[in-house]
Amino acid sequence: MTDQPTTPATTEGIGQSVRAELTALRQSIDNIDAAVVHMLAERFKATQKVGELKAEHRLPPADPAREREQIKRLRELAAGAHLDPVFAEKFLNFIIAEVIRHHEAIAEDAAGDSAGDVNAG
Questions:
Q1: Residues with Cβ < 8 Å from 51, sequence gap 6 or more?
Q2: Closest listed residue to residue 70, CA positions, set 99, 97, 96, 43
Q3: Hey, which end of the chain has fewer CB within 10 Å, N or C?
């Protein structure tokens, strides 16, 4: 076994130019992360409306054909952007699962509201 430090790596032993570049890259990453969060929030606002429309018209929360189309489309976009399509698909599957969960909750709420209306009259 070698004598390696057990503390996390820091920027203490590197030159000022490397430290400055690292800081700039990390700031860029932070900005991108913020943009991703805001884009996801916008996406979920749109999918919330889709869920409400589906519930209103008693459509199923999941749409497997649409999901397949979206996965295919995202994989193609990822490949074109030099991003691993497998990663892109996993990411989209995670989002789709969350959207379906929201749509199911919206449908349950709508069904409960409808039952309440019937029982009230």
A1: 61, 99, 102, 103, 106, 107
A2: 96
A3: N
